[in-house]
Amino acid sequence: xxxxxxVVGAGPGGLATALRLQGQGYHVEIFESSDxxxxxxxxxxxxxxxxxxxxxxxxxxxxxxxxxxxxxxxxEEYISFTRLEPYTKLRFWDDSTLELxxxxxxxxxxxxxxxxxxxxxxxxxxxxxxxxxNAGYEPYLSQPARxxxxxxxxxxxxxxxxxxxxxxxxxxxxxxxxxERLVYALSYPAKYLGMHPTLSASVFSLIPYIEMAFGxxxxxxxxxxxxxxxxxxxxxxxxxxxxxxxxxxxxxxxRRVEGVELENGEQIKADTVIVNxxxxxxxxxxxxxxxxxxxxxxxxxKKQFSCSTFMLYLGINRRYDDLPHHxxxxxxxxxxxxxxxxxxxxxxxxxxxxxxxxxxxxxxSNAPEGHSTLYVLVPIPHTRYGVDWQEKARKYRDLIIKRLxxxxxxxxxxxxxxxxxxxxxxxxxxxxxxxxAVFNLSHNWLQLGPFRPPIRSEYIDRLxxxxxxxxxxxxxxxxxxxxxxxxxxxxxxxxxx
Length: 497
What we know:
It is built from 14 helices and 19 strands. It has helices spanning 12-23, 62-69, 104-114, 118-142, 157-162, 169-177, 180-187, 206-214, 223-236, 279-285, 297-301, 389-403, 424-430, 476-496, and strands at residues 4-8, 27-31, 44-46, 49-51, 81-84, 88-92, 97-100, 216-219, 240-242, 247-253, 256-262, 267-269, 272-275, 308-316, 326-330, 354-357, 372-380, 416-422, 463-465. The model has no long low-confidence stretch (mean pLDDT 92). A hairpin with a 4-residue loop joins strand 11 (256-262) and strand 12 (267-269). By secondary structure, the protein is α/β, with parallel strands linked by helices. Strands 7-6-15-16-17-14-18 form a seven-stranded mixed beta sheet, with helices on both faces. It comes from Plectonema cf. radiosum LEGE 06105.
């Protein structure tokens, strides 16, 4: 098989697609502008401290086993996963707490302290979600997006109604539990879909179910090591990765892919090009204007994008071994349903919810002995809302540091050795993320399935897109599914050529 494939960008979607295609016998090369693989999850080193920069939650480890197996490799020979139990601890606005765990009995004991009927409510909800997962994951999340009419099959009507698409995520959990702490504990992933739970579709109840049913995991060495592991597998199969090699544009002839043109002017021929970059940015910079079709500035201006994130990456000369790997503080503001709280259109400088990842207790590779790293994330407005981060960054940093004791991280400031801060401007300027909206296009009904940009380019023959902007959406789990479908499409189309 002599077909040549170029992948632009070495994010998780690009790496996964490249590994699958290399395993099928194609000749695949990846061109990456950075000095390391991983895209937003490439991480960085600051002195003796190593940090992840993107995802921190690994779901459905079987997806990674399948990825490596598709190329005849064994995932465990490249990277190991550690199961987290409990997997997330939440502190609520009323100072009550909840530890999410796959141990149903331990979880129900906690819920009984909230209200005596909640353990039975959990059993009912879990049973219903199991049926939804079994009926819906494979045809709707794992398979390529269909046309609008393709989702109106009579034989699937019962499955579709089971998801109650008329409900919001908030309504779904409120109907199940009648306790706002549980509502927001289980619907908070909607934030990473660019949505408030009162606006998000109830179909996304599958995300907390998947975590509760199958667990949450951590890759040893961090997510940066996961990216490197996939890259190593790809190279072991004969694939080539060109780092520090930015692509200027996709090389076209009569709206047909010929290859890519590098920043240095060199043109590299290919039978197929796959772009793994932020869609809204890449389509406007890598594709000639005459071939962009509807994807103009005006198109994206009318779309809804996710929040951005304010990030603190802290290297500290102490450990917090008694604190969980994942923690969330859900403030009273998470319950507000008016602007700016419902759409992150202004900076919350009073009582923002926030998340902290404390990876060192289960993975000491990121810091010297006796030291640790902390990853702090706060949802913030994307750049369209005009927050002046040159003015706000230091003050906001101080606010978040002072709030860390809410999750048990006492006295952090006096132990900081290394500190890096990202704002929406960082994501936009340093990572080429459109508007700094790190979770891509929001996942409302008009931006799901057939309404999201497709994997196959609508305007250019033999051009494909992979990543969080295309079906099924953002998040590592869904990006891996996107990569599987991208490789499937490329294989089908190259056979036809």
